[in-house]
Design goal:
alpha/beta, Rossmann fold, Dihydrodipicolinate Reductase, domain 2, eight-stranded mixed sheet, six-stranded parallel sheet, 10 helices, 14 strands
Length: 335
């Protein structure tokens, strides 16, 4: 007997990732969609053979719904995820976990109280190239990690969102809160924590709204670019840049510099992982292309979430890990 799942929020992330991945999972029988705009929910219910909940309470109160994906906009996560957990549902929350640490802590409290699973969609941990890089680092094949640099940038969320408009919620302070830092930056901070088995402790950062305009032609209220220097608890040093104004090919690359060589991830479209050794040896791995806004592949997140519920194991990305990442984002935007 398969399970029923609910999804709160029917924007792009639901359409491209959550709904198709639940639909493809053999353990899921039915998806129940809720959106404040009922038309959006109806459209996805038709596309994926699910049904529509008229109110969000319907999802919470339906005893047959085992798990809920919270794909609402950032400012609502601490409300929806908390309510879902306290109503006895397992929750997969989109990133960032919340708009700030205080709100995130409410979700973690609800998780402890409920005893249900809380997983956060930091999907970069799941790519084959990042998993392979983690193995290499963990096994100390290249010695210790010394420094790193990472970036994530594309031409901006107005080309990705459902409405394709400069009126996108990503540009609104009240809803997105941290702009490109919480949209793209948070992925890479989490990735560095994951790859290095470490935590970023100190941050020096600049951020600004350099180019994006809202629907009224005014500069947006949140940052569209961030550059930062980072220091981890174990003393590694690194740099990171996040941008909504890379007006060309998307950049999702990371370089890890170790004692005996370097690991280049997603620099080359064909060989997603390249190791350059100190002695001149080069090893290339053709693993799988990174997901981009134009190339949606199965992220593995939904399958992992469902697996953690069925086998009652700790989710691959816990609330505590997501909170640690959010703390760094708060330091970056200086709040």
């Amino acid at each position: 007997m398969g399970m029923k799942v609910g999804i709160i929020g029917c924007g792009s992330i639901t359409k491209h990732r959550h709904a198709p991945e639940y639909a493809a999972n053999p353990n899921v029988d039915e998806i129940i969609f809720f959106d404040r705009n009922p038309e959006r929910a109806k459209e996805l219910a038709l596309e994926f053979g699910g049904r529509v909940a008229e109110t969000v309470e319907e999802l919470y109160e339906d005893p047959e719904i085992v798990a809920i994906s919270d794909c609402s906009s950032n400012e609502a996560h601490h409300i929806n995820s908390t309510n879902a957990l306290l109503n006895g549902k397992h929750v997969l929350c989109e990133k960032p976990l919340a708009i700030n640490v205080e709100c995130a802590e409410k979700i973690l409290e609800a998780q402890k109280k409920s005893g249900k699973k809380l997983m956060v969609d930091h999907n970069q941990r799941f790519t084959k190239a990042h998993q392979k890089a983690k193995d290499i680092i963990e096994n100390k094949e290249l010695g210790e990690v010394l420094t790193f640099k990472t970036s994530f940038g594309h031409e901006g969320p107005e080309s990705w969102g459902v409405d394709k408009t400069n009126g996108t919620w990503f540009f609104k302070k009240g809803r997105s809160h941290s702009g490109v830092a919480g949209d793209l930056g948070i992925h890479k901070i989490d990735l560095i924590h994951f790859l290095l088995d470490d935590e970023i402790e100190e941050v020096r950062a600049f951020h600004g709204a350099l180019d994006k305009l809202d629907e009224n032609g005014e500069p947006i209220e949140v940052c569209d670019n961030v550059v930062c220097a980072l220091k981890t608890k174990k003393g590694r040093l690194g740099t990171a840049s996040f941008s909504w104004t890379y007006y060309g090919a998307e950049d999702n690359s990371t370089t890890i510099y170790c004692q005996k060589g370097i690991i280049k991830i997603y620099h080359d479209p064909k060989d997603q992982l390249i190791i350059e050794m100190r002695d001149g040896t080069v090893v290339r791995y053709d693993l799988e292309p990174i997901q981009t806004n134009d190339n949606q592949t199965n992220s593995g997140v939904i399958d992992s979430f469902i697996d953690s519920i069925i086998h009652d194991k700790e989710p691959m990305v816990t609330g505590e890990q997501a909170l640690a990442t959010l703390k760094v984002i708060e330091k970056i935007i200086g709040e």
